[in-house]
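Recap from last week: sequence in, structure out.
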Amino acid sequence: MREGSDRGIRIAVGAATLAALAALWTAATTLEQWIAPVYFPTPQEVGNALRQIVLQGYADGRLHEHFLQSCKLVLYGFAAAVSVGVPLGMLMGWSRRAEALVNPAFLLLRPIPPLAWIPLAIVWLGLGDAAKVLVIWFAAFVPAVINSYAGVRSIEPYLIEAARSLGATRGMMVREVLIPGALPLVFTGLRLSLQACWTTLIAGELIGAITGLGHLLYQAGLDLYPAMIVVGMVAVALAGGLMTALLAWAEKRSMPWRTS
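Predicted structure tokens:
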């Protein structure tokens, strides 16, 4: 009962914050005109831009097409990074030999910003979706590895010794000790990876994209169309928020022993 009450309070406070921001926006751009429309659009202008891109399209596509294209690329890159980065990080955390073998190469790649891979990705894969997925993979890979590694290393040694003393096999150690113990930090890494995916995607779509939210923002910037820029930014926020909510749901289902 108390959990439901706390959730209701959080929702009410969030709604009140959004209403206050909307009122401040209206006052600053429409009523008092503290901000000129050339610098930041009014709510009415944003509504007109939203209607335009939903019904007629803008930047070679309608809003749902840009939205779905960007979400698809993020999901591809994120899934590829998780499927490689999480097992690799956990292996490095569990095995000193694996860490000694892999860590030098990882330390060499780790400081390179994801956007620095864009020129090489274009050389390798052209201007299509594959190059963008590769760059997103690089952005999400590093946080996944680091936090998976830290998750395994955070497991208390006495838990491992207790499991061994009870005769746990290697498979049981992985299923019953390694994975449950590392999951909290693994999901922390996944949240960071997802954020990096969206940051990198928008930058990658500024060049050589036909559709996508990054392409939408780039075209609106060229056209000096602030209202459409705001529509694109809100669409990115909604897409990122939706994926973050899905990840939080997966985290809760994966660790039912943890209270929210």
